[in-house]
Amino acid sequence: MLWPTFLAPVVFLAYICVARASITVYGLNGQAQQQTHANGQPDASATSSAINSAFTSIPAYNNVVLQAPPVPTNLTTQFDVPVQSSSQGVAALSIELKPGFYGFSVEFSVVNQVVGINSTFLNVQFLNLMSIITQRAGSVVIRVGGNSQETATLVDSLANGKSIEKDKTNSTGPTETPTLLFTPEILYMLANVSALLPVKWYLGIPFNDTTNLRLGIAEAGEAILGNHLLGFQVGNEPDWYANHKNRPLNYSQEDYFGEFGVVVQAIANDNKITVRNNLIGPSVSTGPWTPESVFNTGFVSAYDSALGALSVEHYPTDNCAAAFPDGGFGPPKDPQTVFPEYLTHQSGLGIVAPYLNSTNYAQQVGKPFLMFETNTASCGGFPGISDSFGAALWAADYGMTMAVANFSAALLHVGGQDDTYNPFTPPPTNMSDFDQWTIGPVFYSAVILAEAFGTSGTAQINGQLSRLALFNYVTDPSGASTIAASISFDGTTPSQVMVKYLLAPSVAEKVNITWAGQTLSGVFQSDGRFRGTESISTVQCDQSSGTCTIEVPAPGFALVFLSSAALAETEPSSTVTFSTSTVTGKHTATVNPTVLATSNGHSGADRARLDSTSRGSSGAASRAELLPGLCTAFLAAFSALLLLGVHTRT
Ligand SMILES: *[C@@H]1O[C@H](CO)[C@@H](O)[C@H](O)[C@H]1NC(C)=O
Ligand SMILES: *[C@@H]1O[C@H](CO)[C@@H](O)[C@H](O)[C@H]1NC(C)=O
Ligand SMILES: *[C@@H]1O[C@H](CO)[C@@H](O)[C@H](O)[C@H]1NC(C)=O
Ligand SMILES: *[C@@H]1O[C@H](CO)[C@@H](O)[C@H](O)[C@H]1NC(C)=O
Ligand SMILES: *[C@@H]1O[C@H](CO)[C@@H](O)[C@H](O)[C@H]1NC(C)=O
Ligand SMILES: *[C@@H]1O[C@H](CO)[C@@H](O)[C@H](O)[C@H]1NC(C)=O
Ligand SMILES: *[C@@H]1O[C@H](CO)[C@@H](O)[C@H](O)[C@H]1NC(C)=O
Ligand SMILES: *[C@@H]1O[C@H](CO)[C@@H](O)[C@H](O)[C@H]1NC(C)=O
Ligand SMILES: *[C@@H]1O[C@H](CO)[C@@H](O)[C@H](O)[C@H]1NC(C)=O
Ligand SMILES: *[C@@H]1O[C@H](CO)[C@@H](O)[C@H](O)[C@H]1NC(C)=O
After folding, report:
1. Which residues form the signal peptide (predicted)?
2. How many other CB atoms are there within 10 angstroms of residue 170's CB atom?
3. Which one of the ligands is nearest to 53 CA?
4. Model pLDDT, residue 416
């Protein structure tokens, strides 16, 4: 099975908080949320970012700053939020949450820019970024794949000691996917990352030609990565194959079913592949096929023993017309017009709605359901949206909404220089000796989900509310649209609660973004470590009224920890960082794993684990008991307030 047994899905209770008059309660199948963000008014708070103008023609470093939508009329800013501290008797059930929830999907063709050059040259910035997540979530999942996996072929060696080589001459389709050759170095490189940090990997079996299968990645991947390997995707977005001219125009779900079977059989006949239950499919991507149309071929019953998880991929919209002006996509979409569609809880609800039957089905057949690749928009995303603070709020909301909808994990895609949505972007290759990385706003969303969901990955019925998440999508520098949520409890009112804020001056902001006072932002400026002093707000609760009033600036996000134990669970004590001075004097340093492994007398992996638990020396016992569950309480009012509660075991 894909998930270790200690993470096996446990059904637990979540609840819908029924609020007073000023709040509308939205269930996942419920009412459409009121759209309040009209477009148009200039926004005084939109700040321009100082981006090296020499690079602004590269999408990843574009300097497009949009206008924040105007403040909605008659915005409600005062909310009474009664919360039920116990999940007992609560209506909506949800599966347990995997720690972290958000992982990353790295396009195969850029893995040697993102992760490192080879097994002895790992990117320090990448390690630091992954350390941020693993410190909070305990582990992180990364898929190396995408369109470029389909033609990737493992070879023994390449000229000039290269570990990966692209051939763009045979690129096909609107995604202009290069064919790839790679050597085992790439797999050793991933293994060496996992030797330093608790990182687990998904790979893909090339599927462009099942009459000429190339299983080298599975044979070598299993041998080199061992139990750091979670599984293999079989077919990336097969519903687009006909359209992308990778298959005949009549390519059908039955054809995919048949080809999947070819791979299952070939693996069964391959004695170099011993793990035979870790395949991932069908990975349809909102093309002409629904997941059900594949399931209805008998896919899961036919391949039950081979399937580790069911998967889909999804981008809520695309920017293909701008990316490929002659591609027959029609007129380009105007990012300013599209922006408000991301600044509402309705976006996440709309995305998950078509998958609710599938996540339910996945539970029935006992498989995790994965969002294997996602981000703001396909074909590179929208400059000014995908790299804005608004996208950070959106991705945090969307991730929580997927979790409520019983997805088991979601992977944010990293596509490289041509994409605006990357959670992190290494500098162009010719600059990587001088420049640092550029961290995208959606990386903060992954950090937030890691902290919101905690580390244990199990949950139980009589949980106790431990964390609340509050969103304010409105931009209003006057302060008049700051939300005040008065949280009241049916049980004991805590004396105080702790709050971490995600803040920026505007939803259009690209650079000045902070999480609990710390930042990763700045074009070409990040070594993957948070800068600045962490600041956690303490809010005193009013015992006479039994309320704790939490303010959320416009725009902003607040993660409210209802106990110090809840905070301690995800609060890194001393983050394992990989200093750029470790090995060389250059900004971008090679990491010599043996140096790191022997420092402080612990291996990197051991240190990571020690650090994430050492905080609990006062709370080691409570850590074991802090088993976060999931609350399905989404309170949304005029697009401004969204509330999610996370339960932990008492
Ligand atoms: C805003 O409130 C005022 C006063 O209550 C009311 O007259 C007006 O119709 C409301 N506007 C909207 C758009 O709801
Ligand atoms: C999630 O799964 C639980 C447990 O099966 C179920 O009760 C709940 O209704 C599901 N949630 C959604 C939104 O489908
Ligand atoms: C890895 O890449 C670095 C930098 O290009 C090079 O110096 C080193 O020899 C390579 N190592 C291997 C094992 O190929
Ligand atoms: C599949 O990809 C391989 C490697 O790039 C290539 O050699 C082969 O011609 C491709 N097959 C088809 C049918 O496109
Ligand atoms: C590219 O396509 C040409 C013509 O179909 C073929 O001869 C060549 O082998 C292909 N190259 C790769 C790397 O697939
Ligand atoms: C890194 O990879 C190389 C293979 O290129 C291997 O010899 C070395 O032991 C690995 N280091 C770690 C820490 O796994
Ligand atoms: C699909 O089209 C191919 C030619 O492109 C043809 O050989 C095949 O018979 C067709 N299959 C079906 C089921 O119509
Ligand atoms: C839900 O999915 C199952 C499995 O694909 C399918 O048989 C069923 O018809 C679907 N139900 C709805 C309402 O779409
Ligand atoms: C790297 O490439 C970019 C774009 O072609 C160019 O503007 C820049 O000057 C190059 N930098 C170096 C150090 O060669
Ligand atoms: C950055 O944003 C914060 C609000 O999040 C604001 O208080 C601060 O002045 C901004 N700093 C700059 C340099 O714009």
Report:
1. 1-21
2. 9
3. 9
4. 95
pLDDT band, residue 326 (cuts 50/70/90): confident
Q: Nearest bound ligand to CA 521?
A: 10
**Nearest to residue 128, comparing CAs of 115, 110, 141?**
115
Rounded distance, CA 519 to CA 501, Å?
12
Q: Which residue's entry shows tokens 């692209």?
A: 166
Closest alpha carbon to 111 in 157, 140, 139, 152:
152
Q: Match 């080691």 to its residue by tokens.
A: 620
165 CA to centre of ligand 5 in angstroms: 14
Report the pocket of ligand 5 as residue ranges, CB < 6 Å: 167, 169-170, 179
Contact 475, 506 (CB under 8 A): yes
User: What ligand has the least distance to the C-alpha of 168?
Assistant: 5
- How many contiguous H segments (helices) and E segments (strands) does the chain have? 17, 30
Whether the Cβ atoms of residue 238 and residue 256 lie closer than 8 Å to each other: yes
Question: Residue 103: in which H helix or E strand, if any?
Answer: strand 102-107
Of 52, 53, 431, 524, the residue with max ligand 9 atoms within 8 A of its CB, to mutate for a pocket test, comes to 431
The pLDDT value recorded for residue 466 is: 78
Q: How far is CA 14 from CA 185, 209, 492, in A?
A: 45, 45, 19
Residue from 168, 174, 179, 173 nearest 322 by CA: 174
Q: Which atom of ligand 5 is nearest to 151's Cα? A: 14
| Most confident stretch, 73-77, 178-182, 228-232 | 228-232
Mean pLDDT rounded to a whole number for the chain = 79
In the numeric block, the tokens 């990997």 are attached to 201
Average pLDDT over residues 474-494: 92
**Closest of 240, 218, 647 to residue 469, by C-alpha:** 647
The two most distant CA atoms of the chain are separated, in Å, by 74
Residue 542 DSSP class: B
Q: What is the amino acid identity at position 439? A: I
What tokens were used for 243?
């359209």
The kind and range of the H/E element at 172 are strand 164-172
C-beta of residue 36 within 8 angstroms of C-beta of residue 554: no
Instruction: Please choose, from the candidates 280, 284, 218, the residue with its C-alpha nearest in 3D space to the C-alpha of residue 252.
Output: 284
Per-residue pLDDT tens digits for 331-381: 999 999 999 999 999 999 999 999 999 999 999 999 999 999 999 999 999
How far apart, in whole angstroms, are the C-alpha atoms of residue 48 and residue 57?
Answer: 16
pLDDT over 90 (residue 3): no
Task: Please tell me the residue having the least CA distance from ligand 4 atom 6.
Answer: 151
Percent of the chain residues topping a pLDDT of 70: 75
Identity of the highest mean pLDDT range in 29-38, 93-102, 563-572:
563-572
CA 351 to chain centre: 15
- The residue among 98 and 338 whose pLDDT is bigger is 338
Q: Is 94 in the pocket of ligand 2 (CB under 6 A)?
A: yes
In a 3-state reduction of DSSP, which class is residue 295? Answer: helix
DSSP string, 544-596: TTTEEEEEE-SSEEEEEESSHHHHHHH--SS-----TTTT-SSSS----HHHH
DSSP label at residue 614: H
465: CA distance to ligand 2 center in Å?
A: 19
More confident residue, 650 or 616: 650
